[in-house]
Amino acid sequence: MLRIGVDVGGTFTDLVALVDGRIVTAKVPTTADQSEGVIAALEAAGIGPVKGATVAHGSTVATNALLERKGARTALVTTEGFRDVLEIGRQNRQSLYDLTRNRPPPLVPRELRFTVLERMVPEGELTPLDDNSLKAAVEAVAAADVEAVAVCLLFSYLHPEHEAQVGAALRHALPAAHVSLSSGVLPEFREYERFSTTAADAYLGPKLGGYLRRLVRRCEERGVPAPLMMQSSGGVVDVATAAGRAASFVLSGPAAGVVGAAEIARRSSFSDVLSFDMGGTSTDVAPIMAGEPGTTTEATIAGVPIKLPMADVHTVGAGGGSIAWVDEGNALHVGPRSAGADPGPASYGKGGKDPTVTDANLVLGYLKDGATLGGDIKLDRSAAHEAIGELAAHLGLDPVEAAQGIVDVANAEMARALRIISVERGLDPRSFGLVAFGGAGPLHACALAEELDMEAVLVPEAGGVLSALGLAIADIRRDYVSPLLAEVESLTPSWLEAAFEAMEASAAADLPDPEFRRRADLRYRGQSFELTIDAGPVEELAPGFHDAHERRYGYSMANEAVELVALRVIATVPTPPLEMAGPAPAQKRTATARSARFGGDWTEARVLARDAMAPGDEVTGPAILEMQESTAVIHPSWGGRIDDHGTLVLRRR
User: Fold this and answer.
1) Among 274, 291, 363, 580, which is least packed, fewest CB within 10 Å?
2) CA atoms within 13 A on the CB side of 121
3) In sequence order, what DSSP letters do the residues of 535-597 get, joined into one string?
4) Comparing C-alpha atoms, which of 44, 625, 60 is closest to residue 338?
């Protein structure tokens, strides 16, 4: 069976095809219309018309629209008196003491927020929906010439009747508009997060829907099945479902990378790892414990809280294309601005003039002068040297010292990100392996592992396209939530079982023969946040929560009452297990050597070709391993071997 994964990044579009267990890869530059890049990747891999194939896709369309504020013109309809919930938000601030720092503006400006007279309370209807106010709101929305509408009424997560009526009236009056109801997008309490998530869903819906229609049309023209779409939670869904749940796709690509990293770690017998995905534009890191990628419902993307299940990924603006610059105080910075794919780093020879991390790695000897990227890009060391030379002159350094400074600053930013998802969560990185992937991840992996005192680094054979591999092996997944506020001591086994069975019945109607995982959101009475744990019998909920709280926060309160906030069901249709074998090793080639900078000194490093190596082959640093889509730099104090699954497992000597 042919499985295909296509991941669109900020700089490159990656493809992995699993053909009877054999891995075929391709990498092409990302295009302005990402659907064109998907087809270009299929062409580069030689994949023509196919039947019976499974295609999965991870896209940055929703992410970019949110970051660049280029979504649809969106209106909001809410309960009278609550027009400004989106703007008031919470009292937490990203920079609490910076008086000049403004919060990101809401996705829906005040002039596009309208109200209706109605009121639901926890017990049910308090004030009926007023027909005149509904008519006035619908007419105002129609006159505002919007592409999308978010409907968020108070307590609609418990009683969605009024919200359904408003949604029906809007769809009748504006048949071309995308309408998102909070009772469907996020049926949970906390008005601000529910409003924010629903507004994001409406704001992104037309953009993602238009992209998916173009993508499906182009796939049909090439004779390829319509793709499944990767959600932020790490599972895939069909295109029709994706078009109606746009807010669930803001971490589509990074989630695929975490899925791929978890699979690589499992095959190499590592249960606890940190995934490190360094691409051209940014770096994504995430914890994987007991072989399971972490998820969260507390993410904020581009200043917008989105309370949907998503991979517990932390992102920083440090990638191969991140631009180095000097501030007014003559301090060196790297990112978050990126050279992207066009024009790209100076060494791409496409018109870029700004020095980047890729240029620095080239000057330091880690990358080969003339190496080919993405099919038609050849690295030019002289162009990188010239670009960094201008920065170096400003800093009073020579180009090599400036290049080393660029790499050191980028490494510091990425090490900080790894500490956020480990040390700041009560996890000791010394007991974790580091799975390094992405086009630039293996270049920096040993340096970061040394910084965090980690003992093992895993470099997958298809590390440059691992997110695409994660797509190809991802399970079909749907998430269900039911808000049920109650003290755990008051719950009975029959009540809990009935609540879960009702959710699982809904899932069984949506998916063919799904497998279920039961979870519960719990908190101590009086807390304003909760933790999600696996839900077993009623009598195990409180002890399980105490243990989870102890691991996360370093303490527990066994004498405090525990409250249930919500029940969750994760329904999956697992992808059949698949043995993956890379291409047969090419004819053995004699290792060459290249001068590269280690520890401030130039050293002759062995240069090895990954496609000429087989399982069991060993590597000792200093060395440079050139792979098809990326390059691994092995520092002098590191060495390892290629395991039976094609992963280079490095350990500190």
Assistant:
1) 291
2) 3
3) ---HHHHHHHHHHHHHHHHS---TTS-EEEEEEEEEEEEPPPP---B-PPPPSP---EEEEEE
4) 60
Contacts of residue 248, defined as CB under 8 A and 6 or more positions apart, other chains included, come to 231, 232, 233, 242, 308, 310
* Sole residue written with tokens 């889509």: 629
Looking up tokens 């109650």, which residue turns up? 486
- Which is it for strands 148-152 and 178-181: parallel, antiparallel or unpaired? parallel
Distance in angstroms (rounded) separating the CA atoms of residues 35 and 244: 19
Instruction: Give the pLDDT score at 93.
Output: 73
- Closest alpha carbon to 387 in 333, 325, 337, 443: 325
Largest CA distance in the chain: 82
The answer to whether residues 440 and 334 touch, using CB atoms and an 8 Å cutoff, is no
What would the DSSP string read from start to end of 120-166? EETTEEEEPPPHHHHHHHHHHHHHTT-SEEEEE-TTTTT--HHHHHH
What is the distance in angstroms between the CA of the first residue and the CA of the last residue of the chain? 42
- The pair of three-digit structure tokens given for residue 220, joined into one six-digit string: 């049909």
Torsion of CA 462, 468, 471, 473, to 10 degrees: -20
Parallel, antiparallel or unpaired: strands 322-326 and 332-338? antiparallel
CA distance 17 to 4: 4
Q: How far is CA 513 from the centre of its chain?
A: 27
The correct CATH number of 476-573 out of 3.40.50, 3.40.1000, 3.90.1170, 3.30.1490 is: 3.30.1490
pLDDT number for residue 227: 93
Q: Which of 629, 637, 636 is nearest to 460 (CA)?
A: 629
- How far is residue 360's CA from residue 409's CA, in Å, rounded to a whole number? 11
Over 235-254, what HEC string results? CEECHHHHHCCHHHHCCHHH
Residue 484 three-state SS = strand
Residue labelled with tokens 């024009």 = 343
Percent of the chain whose predicted confidence (pLDDT) is above 70: 97
- DSSP symbols for 87-110: HH--S--TTTT-TTPPPPPPSS-G
Question: What region does 531 belong to: left with phi over 0, alpha with psi -120 to 50, or beta?
Answer: beta
CA atoms within 13 A on the CB side of 155: 11
Of 581, 580, 646, 649, the closest CA to residue 613 belongs to: 646
Measured CA to CA, the distance from residue 460 to residue 40 in angstroms comes to: 24
| Inter-residue contact 134 to 165 (CB < 8 Å) | yes
Residue with tokens 């796939």: 219
CA-nearest of 267, 315, 209 to 458 is 267
Residue 279's H or E segment, with its range, is none
pLDDT value at residue 104: 84
Q: Choose among 363, 371, 358: nearest CA to 443.
A: 358
Query: How much is the pLDDT for 582?
Result: 52
Query: Which residues in the chain show pLDDT less than 50?
Result: none
Q: What pLDDT is recorded for position 537?
A: 94
Q: Say what the pLDDT of residue 90 is.
A: 86
C-alpha 515/C-alpha 185 separation (Å) is 22
> Distance from CA of residue 397 to its chain's centroid?
37
What own/partner pairs with CB < 8 Å and gap ≥ 24 does 505-511 have? 506/480, 507/478, 507/480, 507/569, 507/571, 508/571, 510/478, 510/571, 511/476, 511/478, 511/571, 511/573
* Dihedral pair phi/psi, residue 489, rounded to 5°: -65, -25
pTM above 0.85, yes or no: yes
